[in-house]
Write a structure and sequence with these properties.
The chain is elongated, with a radius of gyration of 26 Å. It has about 130 residues and is of the alpha/beta class. The chain contains one helix and eight strands; from the N terminus they run H-E-E-E-E-E-E-E-E. The strands form two sheets. It has a five-stranded mixed sheet, with no helix packed on it. Strands 4-1-7 form a three-stranded mixed sheet, with no helix packed on it. About 20% of the residues are buried.
């Protein structure tokens, strides 16, 4: 008789363990999707002449961020709140080119390239 009861108890423990694993796994997967749903920012990235800076200014709130172009001629302005931006190429603190109405979307990046050689960038409004 004891062997019947011990096998039944063992099966019950395995069943509970499996159920617990499924529940924990389900919560883990739900938690991952909730974290992604909470993203509230996007980014602007692209190419620009080395030595310049690129600034993004919200056309709605006026929020402003600026980064330097790296040695590979690339830049990335991260964690921008959603909205439309004016993205400006700057040389020595002065605006030399602009892209208007650049959309920043949650969890995505908008590519904005400044295709000019150092010293040959001129004030233009594009996009």
């Amino acid at each position: 008789m004891n062997s019947i009861f011990s096998n039944h108890s063992s099966s019950r423990r395995h069943g509970r363990s499996l159920l617990l694993a499924l529940v924990v796994g389900g919560f883990a997967m739900t938690g991952a999707s909730v974290v992604n749903a909470q993203a509230t920012a996007g980014k602007v990235f692209g190419k620009a002449p080395m030595g310049y800076a690129v600034a993004a200014r919200s056309t709605t709130t006026g929020a402003h961020r600026q980064v330097k172009v790296d040695s590979n001629g690339r830049y990335s302005i991260r964690e921008l709140p959603v909205g439309n931006y004016t993205v400006t190429l700057k040389e020595g603190g002065h605006a030399v080119m602009k892209h208007l109405n650049v959309p920043v979307i949650v969890g995505r990046g908008s590519e904005v390239d400044f295709d000019c050689a150092p010293g040959q960038c001129s004030e233009t409004a594009s996009k």
